[in-house]
Amino acid sequence: MPASPPRTLPPVPAGARPSGSPADLAAVWAVITGMYQAYTAGDRERIDSFLDPEATIWDSATPELVCGKGELDRVRDARPTAAVSPAEAGLTAYGQVIDVFADLAVVRYWLRVDFHAAPPELARNTAVLRRGGSDAAWLIVHLHEDVQGAADT
Question: Radius of gyration of the chain from Cα atoms?
Fold first, then answer.
């Protein structure tokens, strides 16, 4: 009986999650942090550059699933202004766990939202990204925000 050919990759242990190359992990995390940098700068066009136009979002302040850019713009336009709600002073994404499955990535992370005149709050988030298009860029196709309450200062 002939011998089995040698494996080119070691077997993956049962229950193990894929991780990703350092370049993919960095590129995926850059999408997440870049989106929040754009949000802090008030740059809606740049925020949208990180989102698939048909992305779905469980927005922390909206009970319905937001489907696509048109619905997202309606949610954005309906948000209270800084005059009637606490103004954000900064956003910090951290504690990321990223898994890459070929052209799909799943990111779990914490987001600390600091306010000028209110206690900070924490949200746990999950983002699903896909790699595609002519430039093979990563885009967020789903984002789930889950506010956990006030952060320890």
Answer: 19
136: left (phi over 0), alpha (psi -120 to 50) or beta: left
- Complete edge-to-edge strand list for the sheet that includes strand 121-132: 66-67, 51-58, 137-150, 121-132, 104-115, 88-101
Predicted TM-score (pTM) of this structure = 0.82
pLDDT along the chain (153 residues), means of 10: 50 62 94 95 94 94 93 88 69 94 95 88 95 88 89 64
Q: How far apart are the first and last CA of the chain?
A: 67
